[in-house]
Prior knowledge:
- The chain has helices at residues 4-28, 32-36, 66-79, 113-122, 132-145, 150-157, 162-168, 173-183; strands at residues 43-44, 49-53, 59-63.
- By secondary structure, it is mostly helical.
- The chain has a single domain, classed as hpI Integrase, Chain A (Orthogonal Bundle), CATH 1.10.443.
- Strand 1 (43-44) and strand 2 form a beta hairpin.
- Helix 1 crosses helix 5, helix 5 (132-145) runs antiparallel to helix 6 (150-157) and helix 6 packs across helix 7.
- It is globular and about 65 Å long.
- The model is unreliable at 1-10 and 100-107 (pLDDT under 50).
Amino acid sequence: MLNTIEALALTNTKKIRDQAIFHLLIGCGLRRFELAKLKLSAIDLTGNKITFDGKGGKERTVAIHPITMKALKEWMVIRGYKEGAVFTRVYKSGELHKSVSTNNIDEIPHFSSESIYLLCKTYGLVSAGITPHSLRRSYATWLSRNGANIQHISKLMGHSSIKTTEIYIKTEQREIDKTVLDKLFV
């Protein structure tokens, strides 16, 4: 049975990890598997960037917004700076899952893609229609609504075609109406 201090440590450790996960999903547009496989070596903590292999093995670099970086650094203080997966399981004791290695490579094992989906489910997001992939779509939509170039968004998303990016960006009727009112007869 956990004592109060252990329970608080667990709650805080998981909460900080989970906040960093959600920040990276929505603040960097990562796919579930990209986040699950993310290694410490992929993160430039001083340059605020992540470079990783995305879908199809295509290397992608994404800037990390300062708010997202703050959440990530809070997790890194708990996780430590040892090479390995950025995200791992947290036990009831509040301790992080560590690998048992037979070849003296004591890397931190990664969180699975399914674990990230279950995390969203745990927080009630899935029942509200929000999945890790919808957080990725929100990233593209917000960039678009804030005036980002669609070619840049496409590159950030790791899409080989702008047509794919256009599917991700949700355009509301009020935005379409505003375009007519603001841009026609200027």
